[in-house]
Amino acid sequence: MSEFRVAPARLDGAGYSILEDASLAGRNTLRVDARAALLVDLRASAALAEVLAFPLLANAPLLVLGEGSNLLLTRDVPGVVLSLSTRGIAVVDERDGYARVRAEAGENWNDLVHWTLGRGLAGLENLALIPGTVGAAPIQNIGAYGVELAEFVDTVEAWDREAKTLRRFDAAACAFGYRDSLFKREPGRHIVTALTLRLPRTPALRLDYAGVREELAAMRADAPTPALVAEAISRLRRRKLPDPAVIGNAGSFFKNPVVDAAQAAALGAAHPQLPSWPQGDGRRKLSAAWLIEQAGYKGRRDGDAGIAAQHALVLVNHGKASGAELWAFAQRVQAAVQERFGVALEAEPRIV
Ligand code: EPU
């Protein structure tokens, strides 16, 4: 993009700024030192239409960034990176025991979880401490400890770059799946600007996922509340998953693969220890972490690229690994699992 030379090195507008040839090193949790030809920092969603109307940006490939916690940059970005840091959380309305809470895309997800819990609203407790922004949450339908975001979504607001208009999607229109949504399937088309959740006043705690009740017992929480469950989940996550502030990572790097009944039965017979969960349609979801660990990759590294010692699903950057090195290592893991078990592992984060 620099061949145009019409973009200033830095331009500041109301609610946004634009920077040329910007480093993304501090903006992705895998800590890949890649650069963007143009970096747009958006602080007010009202400025989005104005910014996207700039001829330089109008039809350019666009990468939308929140906290960069679910992203692997395998090389420099030749186009535009749009970083959203818009702020604001509010209760929109409340009736029949449910409140609707609207949050701007740039808010931190865990902050929103605690904002709602602090106001007596339940539902998000199992999703505590998931890294990333509110805007990123519906794109991959974040989930943990037996709960997925999808069940609480009222509306997603997103700018449609094709129609050049702001659109509102109800939960059905988002077409959520396991770590998947309409927004993920049409990359680059929608820019999520806000999320409205519908949350109950009366908790319906979900404690069945392995380890949750044990953690509450260890905390001596005999009468668990949503806030105590969030605390238990946070403790579990801190213990099991490497902290991106300490070592570069993007959470689970691989999705748990879903296989048909015949393959699940064959694998289960050959490997009785393999954890798996029924999908309701005969298919089973397998533990990718177990497959990777058995393939010998847990804790393994090549240079600065590796798999975490704590959890086999997590790709880590021990220091100065490039995006290309991290991706090459991840592909070796995929090949090893394919060869050993005949199962294809899909990457979960966005690979750029
Ligand atoms: N396991 C291993 N080796 C390991 C880690 C786990 O064999 O190194 C086995 C465990 O014994 C367990 C099974 O794998 O039986 C499942 O492990 P865990 O409970 O840690 O869950 P997961 O399926 O590996 C998923 C999500 C996580 C989420 C946890 C807890 C995906 C891709 N990952 O991991 O989400 O926190 O469940 O709900 O679905 C993320 O998406 O970034 C993420 C961290």
Outline the structure in words.
- Strands 1-2-3-6-4 form a 5-stranded mixed β-sheet, with no helix packed on it. The protein has a 5-stranded antiparallel β-sheet with strand order 7-8-13-11-12. A 4-stranded antiparallel β-sheet has the order 14-20-19-18, covered by helices on one side.
- It is α+β, with helices and mostly antiparallel strands and 352 residues long.
- Helix content is 25%, strand content 29%.
- It folds into 3 domains: 4-84, 2-Layer Sandwich (Uridine Diphospho-n-acetylenolpyruvylglucosamine Reductase, domain 2), CATH 3.30.43.10; 89-239, Uridine Diphospho-n-acetylenolpyruvylglucosamine Reductase, domain 3; 241-351, UDP-N-acetylenolpyruvoylglucosamine reductase, C-terminal domain (Uridine Diphospho-n-acetylenolpyruvylglucosamine Reductase, domain 1), CATH 3.90.78.
- The two termini are 17 Å apart.
- β1 and β2 (16-23) form a beta hairpin.
- Uridine-diphosphate-2(N-acetylglucosaminyl) butyric acid (EPU) is lined by residues 144-145, 209-210, 240-241, 251-252, 255-256, 275, 287, 289-290, 293, 298, 311-313, 348.
Bound molecules: uridine-diphosphate-2(N-acetylglucosaminyl) butyric acid
CATH class of the largest domain: Alpha Beta
CATH 2nd-level architecture of the largest domain: 2-Layer Sandwich
**Measured on Cα atoms, how large is the radius of gyration?**
21 Å
Spatial gap, N to C terminus: 17 Å
| Share of residues in helices | 25-40%
What overall form do the CA principal axes indicate? globular
Strand order of the largest sheet: 1-2-3-6-4
Overall average pLDDT: 95
What is the CATH topology assignment of the largest domain? Answer: Uridine Diphospho-n-acetylenolpyruvylglucosamine Reductase, domain 3
The oligomerization state is single chain
Identify low-pLDDT runs: none
Structural class estimated from helices and strands = alpha+beta
Strand content: 25-35%
Biggest beta-sheet profile: 5 strands, mixed
Count of individual helical segments: 11
Q: Quick one: how many beta strands? A: 21
